[in-house]
Fold this sequence. Notes:
Shape: elongated
CATH superfamily of the largest domain: Glycoside hydrolase/deacetylase
CATH topology of the largest domain: TIM Barrel
CATH architecture of the largest domain: Alpha-Beta Barrel
Number of strands: 25
Low-confidence stretches: 487-493
Mean pLDDT: 94
Radius of gyration: 32 Å
Structural class: alpha/beta
Distance between the termini: 73 Å
CATH class of the largest domain: Alpha Beta
Largest sheet: 7 strands, parallel
Number of helices: 24
Amino acid sequence: MFRRSVPVFCYHAVSHVGGHTPEQFCEHLDAMLDAGYRTITARELLAVTRGERRIDGKSVVLTFDDGHLSNWLYAVPELEKRGMTGIFFALTDFTRTGKVRTLDTAPEMQPMPDAFRAAHFDRDCDQFINESEIRAMVSKGMEVHSHGARHQGCFVNLVPEKPVGSPKAHWAASCIYPAMKEGWPMFRVGSAYAYNGFWPEMNGGEDPRFRIRSRAQRREFCRKDFSRSIERMRDLNRYSEQLFCWPWGQFDALAEEELRKAGYAGAFTLERWANTKGTNPYHLNRLGVGARKDGKWIQSRLRMYGNETTSRFFFKLHRKRPEVESVLFATDSSKISGGARQMVNNAIAMRDMGVRVHVLVTSKSPLGRVVRDTGGINVITFDKFKNPLKSARFLKSLVEEHDIDVVHSFHNRAYKMGVLARVFGGRFKHYINRGVISKPNALFCLWASLSNGVICNSKVCADVLARVGVRRKQLNVVYNAFARPGTDNSQPYKKRTTRFLYIGNEAKIKGFDVFVEACNHYGKLADLRDTEFLAVGLKPGPTKRYLVKGLPEVRERINSPGRCSHAEVLEFIKTSDMLVVTSRMESLPNTILEAFDRGLPVISTQAGGIPELVRDGVNGFLCEIENAECLAKRMHQLAQDYELRREMGGINRKVVRSLLTLHNKGMNLMRVYLGERIVQDLPIEELD
């Protein structure tokens, strides 16, 4: 003989403007009665789960979320006609004083999203049942319990959806944003009880920045909301035991813990499972009833979920979407290279989003000091990267100690450490950073396949990896960000010359010889009296070798200050008119971003990922690799056209200050960490 289970149906509004129409609702009620079912209350169901009451015959529970006025005007009368009981979950912050309303005196019905917008943003709660109506429902044998104080939503990921102002924008914008501005971004919405979430901060700017709420902050929110809502509901329903209904059906251990502490005896979810003796009273199962479901669907679900065996077979459990609260960046490099600076930028970006950030470096690496100086980031030192097994065990214990969700590794030994730590049972996501376009070693595909993904700084870099066997679905493109220096107190540079800037070393791939050849071609096109060619980053010896050939007047005007500090390089950029990049091979040079921020146009070869930043004729010029004559012509064109330099430089400032900010990089990294694959073009042409 089978054991019975109690099906629980979940409704919302019952009206002609949203939810179920009264006619549909009546069809559903009659289908239940025709199938031989009778309604019981939520408190009776609670007694069943405790073993204090048997399931007598075919029993069903009808619940109604959100406390829409239509529940009183349409649902309660139809239930009364049939001798049935409903359980209604009200939002206590939206429960105001007032008289009992009728169809003649009630305001015009609004769809549920509009009702929420009005309540949250305009404080207009007329679309929700009031105190008098709740007491009237209780007097008629209905039950009314809490749905929380205000159905607070939050952003649970950073995948863009319809923005504020769009007809299809989610109503939760009205309770997440402090104001409503058309065009503000919207993302997937979930319950603020169950998720820390991403919250907007205005910081005096026009556009919001997003920061993760801490677990402690969410706990405090739950504590206050549950306490406020249960006290208000006790005053309204006078029940000895109070029940709760999770908004969106979402919950987690933290929220459930605070719910119990507040004094609730149980809670309804949207999980599908058996409701019988032994069911967790804080995980009471329900079936959401879609707006187009008919009476036959109701009867089929009664058969499926009125039986304990089939209820357990046709189950659906709530799986909370992962959240990222702590990230570790790891590298064994001892150099402050362009890649290392990007790692520091990543750490700062994630810290500013509210993530707990750790950086793992060697004890002798200058990166430790650089990171410590930024503040708010935990620096951990480790000197045994060369021992794969020891390093993997160390990382696994580190992840457990600091509750780390994501490890983002830079450079060879660090990513091997991350892969092996996962093989040894480490419970974290692992991403490998790749910032070069050279072909990786033969085993890289294996290391990548054992990680959650690879984060490249250009599409060209991702294409190189795809050609050697890394799966496309593992490849992400997150462009480098530019972190502007602190307050610039240097004096404006007063000059009478046109300065062309080259930044790079003497390696063949950097193309210094191409730069010299382009300068010689330029010398044939222009008067050189007010011209300077500045080559930063070279050793003195190679410079002289390249200058043996060419025009004497060009040699006289090539200035090479040698190897410079990063601060000195930035100063040279500030005092130049344009950046000339003559590389044969590149991924995405940080020097281009630094030149962009100073408002310089860029003349470059089409090497690597540079065309992803420099659009020919828009914010600079592109030439074929090694085409020195083309480079010289473009140098001459910009030297002669100040307005074009200014226009292109203005676009470049917008690129780094709107598209390639630390905040945007943090947002994109978080999207990758949460499981989204990102490969997007920069909308440079769309900048105003």
